[in-house]
Amino acid sequence: MAKVRDMTQGKPAKLILTFALPLMLGNMFQQFYTIVDTVVVGKAVGVDALASLGAADWLNWLVIGLIQGLTQGFSIQISQRFGAEDWDGLNRSITGSILLAGVSGVALTVIMQLLVEPVLLLLRTPEDILPGSLAYLRVIFGGCLVTMAYNVFASILRAMGNSRTPLLAMIIAAAINIVLDLVFVLVFHWGITGAAVATVIAQVASCLICLWASARCPSRASRAISGV
Question: pTM for the full model?
């Protein structure tokens, strides 16, 4: 599961295909969170809760896109160092990326908690669905650091040629999200907040899987991750 791959060795077409396919599927499964939340909440809670999710989704995806862009940018230098077998440079790049991701995650959490209500009001979100949208986004943005952590560890793995483990982590997390959505919404009756809590817990699972795989990389990269 922690296998890394030298992308400079072998047939380019095969390397690109076997690397890119799990990457694309992983992005699809990351979107699966919102789809599951929408289906469960729409069926179990009602139309107003479904409308609340619809009003919240675009802002949620704006933040996810920002996180993905930042962490994928971090991985550029990691992949260069790994390809050059510059282990000291790889150590510094991984350490710097994790620290920057941590600072960015905390900053993003604070900023979005402050801005979420004014932004929804600025967009004239209807009063009857505003509380639901706000409740959902408060929980989701409270997990910004977790989302950042998953994406940075996934980017580290991909930078070393391993795109399969992030996909596996996302598949497992999607399954956890489905189960927890059903439990929190249908059994505990937590409504739209339960869907958000299920999503954050599922993201924690995907983050831990990628962290574990990164620390087990059969290279000196694992020392950099373990030493942060």
Answer: 0.85
Task: Tell me the per-residue pLDDT of 157-182, one tens digit each, with 9 for 90 and over.
Answer: 988 888 888 889 988 998 999 999 99
Of 59, 192, 208, 196, nearest to 146 by C-alpha is: 208
Structure tokens at 101: 């991701």
Helix and strand numbers (H, E) in the chain are 8, 0
- Does pLDDT of 218 surpass 60? no
Which residue from 181, 141, 168 is spatially nearest to 35, judged by alpha carbons?
A: 181
Distance CA 81, CA 89 (A): 6
Summarize pLDDT for 80-95 with one digit per residue, the tens.
888 888 888 888 899 9
Give DSSP secondary structure letters for 62-116: HHHHHHHHHHHHHHHHHHHHHHTT-HHHHHHHHHHHHHHHHHHHHHHHHHHHHHH
Rounded CA-CA distance 2/212 in Å is 8
